[in-house]
Amino acid sequence: MALTIGDTAPDFAAETTEGPIRFHDWIDDSWAVLFSHPKDFTPICTTELGYMAKIKPEFDRRGVKIIGLSVDPLDKHERWADDIEATQGARPNYPLIGDSDFQVSKLYGMLGADVSGDPADRTAAQNQTVRNVFVVGPDKKIKLILVYPMTTGRNFDEVLRVIDSLQLTANHKVSTPAQWTPGDDVIIAGSVSDDDAKALFGSWEAPRPYIRIVPQP
Fold this sequence. Notes:
Elements: E1 13-16, E2 19-22, H1 23-27, E3 31-37, H2 43-61, E4 64-70, H3 74-88, E5 96-98, H4 103-107, E6 132-136, E7 142-147, H5 156-171, E8 174-175, E9 186-188, H6 194-201, E10 205-208, E11 211-214
Parallel strand pairs: 3-4, 4-5
Antiparallel strand pairs: 1-2, 3-6, 6-7, 8-9, 9-11, 10-11
Helix pairs in contact: 2-3
């Protein structure tokens, strides 16, 4: 079955460019982003891995670990890292999973259970569904799933914005409206009664009874 928001992120053991990991142990009490790639030495993925290396301090500041995955072996990842550094000005400074047995890609529903063989024999187009972003919370639950086509580079600034919303709404009884960025007004969660909202927020603006707007806590 396909993974959905709220599911427990499947645990797995894997070899990475920074050594072996057990995914849930690696996350520990942090948030995490797992982002996947169909093959090494693909142009759009090269730009994405370089950009993630540049903005890693922003994830660190939010207590978020990042980990990449590509359906190729680790020795190719190391050579690819040289190209990423040379062309993007930054070398991956986070682990990259070598998913050459397709274990993680199949576990996360990105490839069919019948996929097997040598990853070198598969083209990027055959692996085009391995273009996901998963945000996982400290409770190991999936909080966000994004799926991108091979021709469109991912917007990791948007991933940061969503993480800001997820962390805010995990700690306060609010939701964030369309186009929200940190510091903007928020909406009191629908699960909060007016009486409880008065105790929590005092007063609010309400263009409709179900739209109760307050400053960001």
